[in-house]
Design a protein that fits this description.
two-stranded antiparallel ribbon, 86 residues
């Protein structure tokens, strides 16, 4: 679950990192007006679009095989047996 949360947090913050990198590379980072309401709103919208597309992609790609039963992970005789589909 933590992997999923961190992945979507990364997707949301990616536009902000790219914009900050662009400001740094263009040597305009010294101007505080570059982080005005306009860019923040568009960066937030871009981050939300990335998160929603990531959620949709995960929903479509991470499915179980048809007709397979999931056997959850368990400890058997002191040995960890990972979950699997049968």
């Amino acid at each position: 679950m933590l992997r999923i949360v961190l992945t979507h947090l990364f997707l949301f913050l990616l536009p902000f990192f790219c914009y900050a990198l662009w400001l740094w590379l263009s040597k305009r980072s010294g101007h505080p007006d570059r982080w005005s309401k306009g860019p923040i709103a568009w960066l937030t919208l871009a981050g939300l679009v990335l998160v929603i597309s990531g959620l949709a992609g995960m929903a479509m790609l991470e499915r179980s095989p048809e007709g397979a039963n999931f056997i959850p992970s368990a400890m058997q005789d002191g040995v960890f047996v990972p979950g699997r589909y049968e």
